[in-house]
Amino acid sequence: MKGKIVLVTGANGGLGKYVTQAFLDSDASVVGVARKIEESAFAGSNFIALPAEITTAAGTKNVADAVTNRFGRLDIVVHTVGAFAGGASVAEIDDATYQRMIDVNLNSTFYLLRSVIPLMRKTGNGRIVGIGSRAAVNPGAGVGAYSASKAAMVSLIRTVAQENKDVGITANAILPGTIDTPANRKDMPKADASKWVQPSAIAALILWLTSDVGKDVNGAVIPIYGRDV
């Protein structure tokens, strides 16, 4: 990854910090995006903190402009931003919850990709990875808005794969089960966390997909469920 310019959204989140560190350990230059993030979040001169709101068109345009002005190109995008809400049936979901799932899980993906793809096409051979969810393909009761937003996100990633294969860009979606993060342990204290997916395993998969050896994987929807299969 030496010399690669990588953009990671949600860079200081439960999964994002593992992904960011994995790229930094591989000698990439990483632009870490989050609503609140500082240079001190990661050690080393190869990390650039970029506070931004990526659920809006203006916010993602600012991100793309910042990367263009700093580096003039973008090789890899990993979109780890996401939000979960559950507990209500489709008939009971309130408008605010539904809109939040659409904004954070789907709209952020759309606006981000629309902003960065033109820059990536100039370079060619880029890599895009989006973090979906097991619920995108295996929806359950009480998570209708979340599942729908993630399913739409996966469809968007696969469309991008088709639209940009002519210049060698690949786009793939990873579908984790429950990720072993401090937030999930706090929210589900009685669950068997030993069955959950380790964020380091997801980061390793992302690193492989975005490396030269992963260039032939495109438009894939990859499950990673841990021991909860």
DSSP summary: helix tally: 6
What is the fourth-level CATH superfamily? NAD(P)-binding Rossmann-like Domain
**Structural class from helices and strands?**
alpha/beta
Terminus-to-terminus distance? 32 Å
> What's the CATH architecture?
3-Layer(aba) Sandwich
Q: Which CATH class is shown?
A: Alpha Beta
Biggest sheet character:
7 strands, parallel
String of helices and strands: EHEEHEHEHEHHE
The CATH topology comes to Rossmann fold
The fraction of residues in strands falls at 15-25%
Computed Rg? 17 Å
Helix content: 40-55%
What oligomeric arrangement do these chains adopt?
single chain
Strand order of the largest sheet: 3-2-1-4-5-6-7
**Would you report the number of β strands?**
7
Shape verdict? globular
Low-confidence runs of at least 5 consecutive residues: none
Estimate the mean pLDDT confidence. Answer: 93
Q: Number of folding domains?
A: 1
Describe this protein's structure.
It is built from six helices and seven strands, in the order βαββαβαβαβααβ. It is of the alpha/beta class and 229 residues long. It has a single domain (5-177, 198-222), classed as 3-Layer(aba) Sandwich (Rossmann fold). A seven-stranded parallel sheet has the order 3-2-1-4-5-6-7, with helices on both faces. Helix 4 links the parallel strand 5 and strand 6 (170-176). The longest helix has 29 residues, at 95-123. The chain is globular. The two termini are 32 Å apart.
